[in-house]
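User: Can you write out an input/output pair for a complex, sequences first and structure second?

Assistant: Here is one pair. Inputs:
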Amino acid sequence: MSDTKKFMFLNRRAPYGTIHAWESLEVVLIAAAFEQEVSLMFVDDGVFELVKGQDTSEIGMKNFSPTYRTLGDYEVRHMYVDKASLEARGLTAEDLVEVEWEDWETEETVDNIVEVVDSDKVVELMEESDVVFSF
Amino acid sequence: MKFAIQVNEGPYQHQASDSAYHFTKAALEKGHECFRVFFYHDGVLNGTRLTTPPQDDRNVVNNWVELAEKYDLDLVVCVAAAQRRGIVDEGEAERNGKDATNIAPRFRISGLGQLVEAAIQCEKLVVFGD
């Protein structure tokens, strides 16, 4: 397995209505171990996965929201958010968690790898990907 | 073409597993290769041998088993998803102190690394489910 592929994880669902968001994250964490080029894309209700200040104490579900903030440590380099999906839900970039990234070898750092992109860019990024995991 | 297949839905509630089965069967009959079929989310429920549909209905689980026997298919059930949903083989029963197993023949329980590896090795990963 010498070749590196571009993996995109397409997240389309709200974090707690179904298990898709959580089981998507589990694949992301494993994929990092395979040294692939991993990016995440959040569209439709998937943008809710990144909303900060989540509190699940009243619904008896595990709050996995803090896991997103650690993705930079799992060699996830890009987390894209579809602008139209965000706006349609009355959200802005300010409502989303920030995810820091650091290259362990070069010590290059990026303060926040969460990036809001327009629909044309979403299409472009999807087309560039070798594999799209849709959740 | 070398395919990998991902099934994300359980049998009967959703047509995804049937569609994945028909796709895989057709691809194999045309001489294509299937690197692995990976069952995730409720898709792991396709891997129980205890499924008992009415006699005049198709048996989704047995369809997979028979296809696997004919083409030596690798049918892999995600371990984390399986543990949540009660799909158990001998090893899992022992590890987790369960009094029974239900894994269907030809299916095996393994990790998500098997899905990632399949995505790397195949030319196309085809995902079935909503």
